[in-house]
């Protein structure tokens, strides 16, 4: 067990000492060691407590246009009940025009996209 003074936590695992003063630490099966920079990236990617804009949703659906997202996801009759419920629960704010953007609760919308991935018409085209 290693005590980390900075976080006041103990890490469980096995410590190996090699000749020349090298120390290796092997965490238990349920733990991993992550580089500090990588950890910061992972924390930044967390969806908890985050709000998405239309551009964030577009990023999650292969950078489709806002018009495509509206036509093939947000305005689809088969998904209407879901988005109406999200709006009642304050997980979604629909745009009512310029200066009033779409807003989505990131964790809810990300799960919805994952759960409905196969139902989305990925071949749909926006006509000019």
Features:
3-stranded antiparallel β-sheet; alpha+beta; 7 strands; 128 residues; single chain; 2 domains; elongated
Structural class: alpha+beta
How far the N terminus sits from the C terminus, by CA atoms, comes to 64 Å
Strand order of the largest sheet: 5-7-6
- Write down the domain tally: 2
**Tally of contiguous helical segments:** 5
Shape: elongated
Structural overview:
The chain has 128 residues and is of the alpha+beta class. It has two domains: 2-33, no CATH class; 51-119, no CATH class. The chain is built from five helices and seven strands, in the order ββββαβαααββα. The strands form three sheets. Strands 5-7-6 form a three-stranded antiparallel beta sheet. It has a two-stranded antiparallel sheet with strand order 1-2. It is elongated and about 70 Å long.
